Amino acid sequence: MVTWFGKFVTVVITLLFVTAWINPVQDTPPDESRFTKVVLDNDLNEPMELDIAADGRIYFIERNGGFFRYDPKTGQKKKLKDLDVRFMGEDGLLGLALDPNFGKNHWVYLYYSNPQQVNSQWVNQLSRFEVSEDSLLTSTEKVMIQIPVLHEGVSHSAGSLAFDKQGNLYLSTGDNTNPFESDGYSPSDDRPGRIRFDAQKSSANTNDLRGKIIRIHPTTDVAEPDGSYTIPAGNLFPKNTSNTRPEIYTMGHRNPFRISIDSKTGYLYWGEVGPDAGTDSLMRGPRGHDEIGQARQAGNFGWPYFVGDNKPYYYYDFDAKKSGEPFNPQAPINRSRNNTGLRILPPAQPAFIWYPYTESPEFPMLGTGGRNAMAGPVYHAEDYAASAWKFPSYFDNKLFIYDWMRNWIFTVTMNPNGNLQRLESFMPSTEFNKPVDMAFGPDGALYMLEYGTYWRAKNLDARLVRIEYHRGNRKPVARLSADKTVGGSPLTVKFSAAASFDYDKGDKLRYEWYFTNSPKPQATGAEATFTFAKPGKHTPRVKVIDSEGNSSEARLAVQVGNEPPKVAIQLNGNRSFYWGTQPLQYTVSVQDREDGMLNKGIAPASVRVTFDYLDQGYDQIQLAANAEEEPALKGKTLIERSDCMACHAKEKQSVGPSYVAIARRYGTDEAAVGKLASKIITGGGGNWDSEHVMSAHPQLSPADAGEMVRYILSLGREQATIPVQGTVQTNRQPASATEPGTYLLTARYTDKGANGMAPLTSRATVVLRHPRLLAASADHFKAVAKQNPGWPGQPVVMAYNESGAYIQFNNLDLNGIRKLDLETYTDKLTGQIELRLDAPDGPVIGTAGVTPQKEYVTYTADLKPTTGEHTLFIVYRETKGGINIWNRLNLRWVEFKQ
Which of 146, 515, 539, 618 could, after both became Cys, cross-link 125 (CB 3.0–4.6 A)? Predict the structure, then answer.
């Protein structure tokens, strides 16, 4: 007999099963291929913060005062206002939040720097405005809070806005302090006239709204639109407490640049941009850390007395330059003469997550380098309507954090109490370019602003993007290439989308090509050809569609109207190697469709021809200053992988000086390499009349920092020009050189532009190397290992591990070369080295037999006469001895002989 209880249990189990079937909980991370980053808009000017209305429309701001709305349904962006703001330093239009009842009252809250003084003071202010369909109505402005700030020579404005589910509005403010004269440690200099250098006046001041996250409850009744607010219960200081501001929710902040509120728990999260010291100091305090903060209730988070997990700074006498006792996190005391608040402060609370420039002992997965921590949203699947883009349940209750400098996003998994469990990288293979704000839309997709490459600049790669999740069938990935993207008019271009692919292997792809503004496709298939008749800039695109109708697009920029010039160098000898100091006759030729040719429209003086000797140690670095495209040099690569490009550009002044300006200042002074490398590692400033100091980079080795400096200094070198026809000699190697260098003959011509198109530059280059090459300098190898030297001074060798293994040298001119010497060693193997052209099984042009020896010996292979450039494969075939990873052939040097 089934009792009523048994029936009840059966019903409950059935309901749970059905619920789990409808809303399955995912306990494994989804494959990254299920996420797609879609660019909605680009070419923004310092985008700062966004918010998303219930209808899906996105509102966002730019620091210079731009207020925009983007409609994802139509793909249209509209500028609603250029707000007049004080746009200097770190000030401007900083924060945005839509009212929780925005759909009814159309109110938006903005935090911005007032361009005019108020009562003889500069202020940053929180105001409420009404938004119409076409404009931000500045006549409706209601000023809610005005915060007096120091105007010049200070940093850290913060300015992020967020609402919680009770309708409380949070605003983050920075410490409004100059951090650059405290050696990257605690800026607590309270000497007379030094208020700009004392964060105790703000962050540690209970009677000041700077260096805080404030919490207020704005008036939300449309019938009483006066812009007033009340103080919610539970702020840090009860109302009417002497020497305090009741708006303060959390204090002790340096630069809480981005904040978020967990809609379920009400917990506050923020990213704290930390100080710059690269190393711990025995008597000053800890190195700089960035922080992710979590506040479950009101509290003091320690700045400028503590950082990270309450690592204390020392009281420091800036006159005597001596340290006293460390600050006590249980009872911090604000002794500053600039303090107008309480002397004894609430106990300091530790950070939730913290990390320095170097690898973090607690959170090593966050990497190394520059830091700029920010807090994103906490995702709750139940908050978002079902949609094709909604994130899966795996991300339920996870916090998204990101770093503006390091370009990563991580998710934070927490237990039900909000305690940290683990960090996981989100979309680690996807490139993010300075993410500056993010929020989930009502469709469950993640929307993001990317600031772009350079700080304080209008970046072409500053974008509004959407991260979509694709269940079931995934979008195809569109790839587009062309045989040319610039040329004269008419210009015929062959396009290919053959590299496009689909993660769902069974899908067949269709292609639609759009070369003009026509709404109908003008070609189909994976490849297409189109002739652009009219000069101008064109943006052809291909739409790649899978079998279920999902699609993605790729675009290219094509410039029509100016044909690139053709530059060539004729040489009377071998184009790959030089022998001795013989003279070489050369002739440069230039042809341009619009300009003419040498001496017939093109003056020889307009062609820049240079011949340079490149020391063995610096050949690639100096080559970078001449080549059409800079190769992936170590110094250049290290710069690109660091945070350097946020503050420096190659040729233009940014926050810091351009690399070319640095190169011109220091020239070829080798002593400057060590000095500048040390500056990169330790940070500092004062040499370029800038209020900003370069961050420390203690994670870099002196050798790597030196490579970065040498690359930078190479950009200022000017080569002497030579005639377009003449003779050069390979006799420039200094007597002190221990290894032979490289010669570089380059010809460059920049045309005059045509049909409204910009001038184009073309180069021709002949690189002449010494004919003796280290085998380890091969361009590619297979089944061969680079064997580390057994002791200092011994060269790297190439170890052949199996029969048929090879190394290859690309694009060698073999004209006039009759022999090849090979320096090898094997104590057990017998076999043959084969020299083959253009493929491992290509034509054999020479062989050398190899037998067991007790030391390195040189074998000579006679070569068949060969002309033109080829890829040379050096293949080893074993006949006896049993080749394996312990018994192999070592090849050290090869030398080409005439």
Answer: 146
Given this model, what pLDDT does residue 10 score? 44
What span, in angstroms and rounded, lies between the C-alpha atoms of 548 and 499?
Answer: 20
Asked whether 658 and 652 are in contact (CB, 8 A), the reply is yes
> 420-432 burial, b for 16+ CB within 10 Å, e for fewer?
beebeebeeeeeb
pLDDT for res 654 = 63
CB contact at 8 A, 303 and 262: no
**Bridge partners, 299 (sequence order):** 250
Are the C-beta atoms of residues 873 and 835 closer than 8 Å to each other? Answer: yes
DSSP summary character for residue 171: E
Q: Report d(CA 658, CA 859) in Å as an integer.
A: 51
Task: Let me know: does 762 contact 748? Beta carbons within 8 Å.
Answer: yes
Both tokens assigned to 778: 């091969």
Q: How many CA atoms lie less than 13 Å away from 442 in the CB half-sphere?
A: 10
Six-digit token string for 893: 């040097």
Strands 583-592 and 566-571: antiparallel
190's enclosing H/E stretch is: none
Question: For the whole model, what pTM was predicted?
Answer: 0.70
CA distance between the termini of the chain: 104
DSSP state of 719: P
Please tell me the distance from the alpha carbon of residue 747 to that of residue 567, in angstroms, as a whole number: 7
Residues 621 and 632: beta-carbon distance below 8 Å: no
Element (H, E) at 9: helix 4-22
Whether residue 304 has a cis bond before it, omega within 30° of 0:
yes
Q: Can the peptide bond before residue 540 be classed as cis, meaning omega within 30 degrees of 0? A: no
Burial 90-116 (b: 16+ CB within 10 A, else e): bbbbbbbbbbbebeebbbbbbbbbbee
Smallest Cα–Cα separation from 547: which of 584, 516, 510, 588?
Answer: 510
Chain position carrying tokens 């700089």 = 288
Helix (H) or strand (E) holding 245: none
**3-class DSSP assignment, residue 95:** strand
3 state SS for 302-336: CCCCEECCCEECEEEECCCCEEEEECCCCCCECCC
Q: Which residues of 673-692 are buried (b: 16+ CB within 10 A; e: fewer)?
A: beebbebbbbbbbeeeeeeb
Question: Given the structure tokens 């690359």, which residue do they identify?
Answer: 711
Residue 641 CB-density burial (10 A; 0-12 exposed, 13-18 middle, 19+ buried):
exposed
- The alpha-carbon radius of gyration of the chain (Å, integer) is 33
- Strands laid side by side in the 527-532 sheet: 481-482, 491-496, 527-532
38 φ/ψ angles, rounded to the nearest 5 degrees: -110, 125
pLDDT < 70 positions in the chain: 1-26, 221-225, 506, 615-634, 637, 640-643, 645-646, 651-655, 668-670, 684-695, 716-719, 789-792
The alpha-helical segments, DSSP class H, found in 604-670 are 619-624, 634-641, 659-666
Q: State residue 626's pLDDT score.
A: 43
Asked if residue 893 lies in contact with residue 773, where contact means CB atoms within 8 angstroms, the answer is yes
What does the pLDDT read at residue 4? 43
Structure token pair of residue 540? 């052809």
Location of structure tokens 């237990």 = 415
Between the alpha carbon of residue 612 and those of residues 188, 480, 743, the distances in Å are 54, 38, 6
CA nearest neighbour of 158 among 143, 168, 147: 147
Helix (H, G, I), strand (E, B) or coil at 703: helix
Q: Which domains does the chain have, with CATH numbers?
A: 32-71+82-469 (2.120.10.30), 481-560 (2.60.40.10), 566-769 (1.10.760.10), 772-897 (2.60.120.260)
* β strands within 334-460, DSSP E: 353-355, 373-379, 398-403, 408-414, 420-425, 435-440, 446-450
Which pair of structure tokens corresponds to residue 29?
């991370």
Helix (H, G, I), strand (E, B) or coil at 257: strand
